[in-house]
Design goal:
heterodimer; A: 178 residues; mainly alpha; Ferritin; 6 helices; globular; B: Ferritin; 0% strand; elongated
Amino acid sequence: MAEAVLPTPRRDFVVRLARAAGVAPAVLGLLEGTGTALARAKDETDVAILGAALAIEHHAIALYEAGLQRGLFPAGLRAYAVEFRGDHLGHRDTQIAIMEERGARPPAARSRYELGRLVPGDEFVRQALQIEVYAQEAYTALMSRIDTRDYLLSAAFILVDEVRHMTVWRRVLGLRIY
Amino acid sequence: MASTGRRRLLRGAAATSLAYLARPARARATDYASAAEVLDAIDRLEADVDGRLAAIAREVAGARDFATSVGADHAGHRAARLRLRRRLKLPAAGPPFTPAAAESSLARLREVQQRLVHAHAEGLPALGNAAGVDLLTRHMVDASRHLTVIDLWMEGEEQGG
């Protein structure tokens, strides 16, 4: 049995969102500590992680799109949302390119995401924070399973972006950032 | 809280990270040859950040809590890296690095902090050890958070004139 890679309270939160994002069962099992090891071949492991990462990025993009299209972010924070959406689009495209380079078929975005009740203002910023926390926790948990040098380096810089997004939204909401 | 200054900083940060993701630019990343080299670079940069942050905290009372918090994180990271060195049978860290001059420049602090974040990220592939990657990934999360706090701090400085 795989060792749980996240502490329990975080794990529950991450797993709930991972299911909603359509993360592959193998990686989902790894996150919740109930799955067996990922595939043995280097490329297969990375492809499973890339698929999970793409599911996360698709979900984040859908949330930011909804927020921007429906004017759910407070007016003064819209520029952050535009920038963070741009980052997630970049993460998506980079990981699609890596997957295609390895001959794998990247998962497409779902036609519809269950984003829950969309309440404008701080409540929506809280939702954006949740997806960033989820992304940060998931990338952090999966990094040490990445086998190839180029993807490990890319994933590291993606994680740096996720932490930045998370820290900015925490600051906006008056939560501790240090 | 959005401001032109912060947006500019965020754009800069995004451009930097995405530049690393782009294939041709990736060649610019430091190519560490060994785990020892990575850990030495992190030790040096972390001490540099500590020195610069302490110098700023001596002059700016509002910076003391942040400096204390970063110092505590770094102490934990150092101890964990020391254990990692032992586990990987690497030589102990060299003598503590002391910055030549304790500058109190926020811009220089940011620059060194960013180099610290990059040393973590670029060092991961050289570790060759899953537990080591996991450890330095978690440290990198803290370092990235510290970098963002510094960015927000600089924004505040800009807004305050």
